Amino acid sequence: MKILVIEDDPKTGDYLKKGLRESGYTVDLSRTGTDGLQMALNNAYDLVVLDVTLPGIDGWQIMPALREQGDVRVLFLTARDQLSDRIRGLELGADDYLVKPFSFTELVLRIRTLLRRGVAREADVYEVADLKLDVLRRKVTREGSEIALTNKEFLLLHLLCRRQGEALSRTLIASEVWNMNFDSDTNVVDVAIKRLRAKVDRPFATPLIHTVRSVGYVFGDAPEGAP
């Protein structure tokens, strides 16, 4: 797998080049936006690690040019840590966004995930019946009315939307949302579902969260026999 790093800071660029090579990748390094874009357009890379603030042209300008050229995977690695920056990067078509200072182990894991799953990117917006979930803006509406959710409630609803129509076990939900092994004596999932239902379902005519007996929960149209 061949990676292009576009990074103007000498220490960071050299560190990334050395570390990624030691992790088994072929790595090219560019220290300016102008040279980096030309390298990306003239060579076949599996992934580009892209800074935002660069000499010549910046990462925001490089990103659309990469998308016009093709579907190379792009990971923004930048000190720009505002939510608006992350939204902008992902809306421009980046596959991932990691903020400096960063863990090199996390960077490698994210790169491996991107290379393993290919160019398919997660949807930015999910629409199920009259419910709309905007991932980037962390905004949920139903029948046009905005619904205020806690962070965990949003993560739970995001999971349900991503896996719409699938019966999700409590074990899977606990692992995905709370990063915990499910203990049958713990009712954290059921309590969270109850609170989410109070906001997402109860004020509206048609429920979207359904219990699947002896399994867990499903989101969307009610499965046969579900309450």
UniProtKB/TrEMBL annotation:
Region forming the signal peptide: none
Organism superkingdom: Bacteria
Domain OmpR/PhoB-type residues, every copy: 123-221
SUPFAM superfamilies (alphabetical): CheY-like
Acyltransferase among keywords: no
CDD domains associated with the record: REC_OmpR_CusR-like (cd19935), trans_reg_C (cd00383)
Alphabetically ordered keywords of this record: DNA-binding, Phosphoprotein, Transcription, Transcription regulation, Two-component regulatory system
Classification via Pfam families: Response_reg (PF00072), Trans_reg_C (PF00486)
Sites of 4-aspartylphosphate modification: D51
InterPro entries assigned: CheY-like_superfamily, CusR-like, OmpR/PhoB-type_DNA-bd, Sig_transdc_resp-reg_receiver, WalR-like, WH-like_DNA-bd_sf
DNA-binding region as annotated in the record: 123-221
Domain Response regulatory, first and last residues per copy: 2-115
Record-linked NCBIfam families: cztR_silR_copR
Protein name: Two-component system copper resistance phosphate regulon response regulator CusR
Organism: Roseateles saccharophilus
Lineage, top ranks: Bacteria, Pseudomonadati, Pseudomonadota, Betaproteobacteria, Burkholderiales
